[in-house]
Amino acid sequence: MLEVRNLSIEFSTRRGTVKALDRIDLSIAPGEIVGLVGESGSGKSVLSYAISGLLDRSARIASGEIRWHGAVIEPVRERRSTHAAIAQIFQNPRASLNPIMTVRRQLGDVAGRDRVLSLLENVRIDPNRADHYPFELSGGQCQRVGIALALGCEPELLIADEPTTGLDVTTEAAIMALIGDLSQRRGMATLLVTHNLALAAANCDRIAVMHAGQLVECGPAEQLAYSPMHPYAEQLLASVPQHSESADDLRTVPGLLPDLAGPLLPCRFAPRCDRHQPDCDASPLSLIARSPQHFVACRHPLC
Amino acid sequence: MFPLLRSVIKRVAFAVPTIFGVVLVSFALTRLLPGDPAVYFAGAAPTPEAIADIRKAMLLDRPLLEQFVSYVVNLLHGDLGKSLITGQPVVKDLAARMPATLELTGLSLLIALLVSIPLGVIGALRKGSLIDHAARFFSTTALSMPSFFTGLLLVFVFYYLLGLAPAPLGRIDPLGLPPPVKSGLIVIDGFLAGDYESVTDGLAHLVLPSIALALSGIGPLTRITRGAMLTVLSSDFIRAARSYDMPRWRLVYVYALRNAMLPVLTTAGFVFSFLISANVVVEKVFSWPGIGSYALQALVASDYAAVQGFVLSVALLYVLINILIDVLYGIVDVRVRLAE
Amino acid sequence: MEFAATLQDGLRRDPLTATTMAIIVIICLVAIFGPFVASHDPLATNPSIALKPPTWEHPCGTDQVGRDICTRIVYATRLDLFIALSAVGLGLIIGGLIGSLAGFFGGIVDRLAMWIVDTIMAFPLFVLAMGIVAALGNSLENIIYATAIVNVPFYARTMRAEMKQRREMGFVEAARVSGNGPFRILAVHLVPTAVPQLMIQATLTMGWAMLNAAALSFIGLGIRPPTPEWGIMVAEGASFIITGEWWVALFPGMTLVLVVLSLNLVGDGLRDVLDARERR
Ligand SMILES: Nc1ncnc2c1ncn2[C@@H]1O[C@H](COP(=O)(O)OP(=O)(O)OP(=O)(O)O)[C@@H](O)[C@H]1O
Ligand code: SF4
Ligand SMILES: [Mg+2]
């Protein structure tokens, strides 16, 4: 249904060219839930904006293309046309709602007046909230309104950019259950963007791991969660706290993301990698199939 | 209705320190006169008795505090003193000329808004395009033109060269008969009296001065609109709205513009102060019989009560406008309204 | 000096700002040296050539009493620049002082200072300036004082914001620990860091100060005829506009517009350069 092929995206800024995405390959089939994980700044949002056609005008495609049911779609769509039924849930739920309009008005503008209440019911929000303004709602409620708005577009593909950041565990579970349910009932595909590998492992069919704008590993959820191949995926997995209540002892991946505006090595993880060998810096890497479903971009994978 | 009333009362209360400051400054201005204020307030050829009377009336022989208190008490009674040139109470003079000024200022604010909001929106939508650069240059130029000069240029082109506009001599043809005064606005009074000749004549006289005046407001308003629109257009909720595939007109004119109007509204007060200032010189250029030219006549005749009355009433008008804008802001922005 | 470097860099990329800066330099040169090379006497009347349109001898024409308008514009440039510079300079000193004390000490000092600033801002500023000149008396100095006072709020606010922001920074604490008094910290460590921001404010308000002063003399306050000054010259030309002698008002008016426009463009350019630097 969706195919991203060899996609590279650059932003021209005052500091220079930010190479935000580097030759990304990714495909999603109907009904599938695909997780996109990576630490902050790894380019998850840029990729999801590119798919939904919402990138800023300062973005430039350096290579590749995105195909939707076989037809090429542009990552910067000033006027989005309805033929690509892709809807997005945003990272920052409150800021993504119009601050001076009621929930009812916004839902009505998107899905039609008569569907407002059923959509709210879908995301389990009290219909009495319909006449509230975003600032009167909690973060979780805003997020659910955001989901209702996205669902109001009746998408074939839902892109959920960190739909549960800043929400408590119970709300998180409720929202994930809602998304899983919709995928099953409607055959809607979902791209779940998150920095939380455990969350992705629990909810997704497949997982793609991004680092510094590169897709480093992609495979079935259980395989990736139990036997990661890329050193970065392994470290990311180790950084997930075993018991999610104790978020304090979060181990992070050592080292910093490289500056995407500066010169970059073929493997952008090389400066942080403990398996690094001289041949890693030789020539551009690409995803290699280690099994029919499992791909990794590394010269010295873990297994 | 009641919450609105409450918010009005609250804002008036907030304005109290400012109003106090304004009254204090205008009091200070009447006492700062070089030499003996009484002599100045007595006018051109004062008799010693007149000076003594005024000294008594102004309590110049009493302590400053007492003078201030009586000044405030007089103000509360609507007493700004008597004008020397007209012999009338200043308040009455100002009230009689206020409609002419409000008519001119109001119309020019309208023109300024009608020009600068589209200009700012287009500039923001096509940032960096030729139109954007042209709009920015136009608004900077408008900001750099003194309105007395713009007014003269307009008169030269549209009256002298093209003969399209009437002579810059007031609100209505000197030979024409103004309609009976009801609202004080000639155009409206003309309609009320069914005197359509007055309506067209009044409008014809209004065009050039209000354009001259509007130009001084266009600079700041265009900039603010453009900046606010740029900020809003790059905000998360517009990106989100874009993803819901709503029609572009709704995205730009309902979602973005309504939010961008909030900072514009805040600046509108400042723009009004620009306009009321420029109003003084524009009234001079077009012999417009408003409070500005009244103040200028008073300046020339050293009619200080009239000048200070003008300064004070304009400042109070401005405070009032700012309160009005705050209330309006609360109506547009629910966050403020509901926070109260 | 890092600021000077960014400035140079910014100007190279922004030819419009560079051009307008050049115009301003030329105007300053005219103001300083113009009177020495001007061919005519700005006050010498000659009724036989009254109200003559521009010729080679009188490039901007002559006015109602036969004075050479071009020469008068040159002399007026000097006077108007002097007024604007002194008003802005004075305003900077007063506003900078109020703003730095308010921002640095906070509390009651801050509230008092902001009350003063808000009170000034509660007046339409040109009207306040009118009132001040009317009360203090009709003279050149009073025009300067009035223009300075109505500019004070802008400088005070800028300075206050800068001070507030910098007060908490490490080097202030370091200076305090090493036994510097508050005034010394203010004068030596804090105020100089705010100079670039203040200079931009000054450029942005300079044009406005000029319009303000010209408008005051246009309505007959301050400087009196026959002194050459842009506002007065436009006022004198006003009555000839409706009879078609456009040059009397046009040339001084255009000079004023050119100077103010250049100042505004330079101010905008400077702000962009500084903003870019801060974004980095
Ligand atoms: N409009 C833009 N202009 C310039 N650089 C950009 C732009 N948008 C994103 N970037 C850069 O692209 C990189 C990836 O950003 P992105 O927002 O996709 O990260 P992310 O993985 O979503 O992180 P987070 O988990 O914090 O949301 C960052 O280095 C960011 O600075
Ligand atoms: S390619 Fe080399 S440097 Fe890159 S992740 Fe694999 S081992 Fe590490
Ligand atoms: Mg993100």
Characterize the structure shown.
Chain A has 303 residues and is of the alpha/beta class. Helices cover 26% and strands 26% of the residues of chain A. Chain A has one domain (2-85, 155-296): P-loop containing nucleotide triphosphate hydrolases (Rossmann fold). In chain A, helix 2 (103-111) runs parallel beside helix 4. Chain B is an all-alpha fold. Chain B has 14 helices and no strands. Chain B has helices spanning 2-31, 37-42, 48-57, 64-76, 90-125, 130-144, 147-161, 186-193, 196-233, 236-243, 248-285, 291-300, 304-332, 334-339. In chain B, helix 7 crosses helix 11 (248-285). The two termini of chain B are 14 Å apart. Chains in contact: A-B, B-C. The structure holds adenosine-5'-triphosphate, iron/sulfur cluster and magnesium ion. Magnesium ion binds at residues 44-45, 91, 161 of chain A. The site of adenosine-5'-triphosphate has 17 residues of chain A, from strand 1, strand 2 and helix 1.
The H/E string of chain A reads EEEHEEEHHHEHEHEEHHEE
Task: Give the N-to-C terminal Cα separation of chain A.
Answer: 31 Å
Estimated share of beta-strand residues of chain A: 25-35%
Bound molecules: adenosine-5'-triphosphate, iron/sulfur cluster, magnesium ion
**Tell me, what is the CATH class of chain A?**
Alpha Beta
| Strand content range of chain C | under 5%
Instruction: Give the CATH topology of chain A.
Output: Rossmann fold
Q: How many runs of DSSP E, i.e. beta strands of chain C?
A: 0
Into which percent range does the helicity of residues of chain C fall?
Answer: over 70%
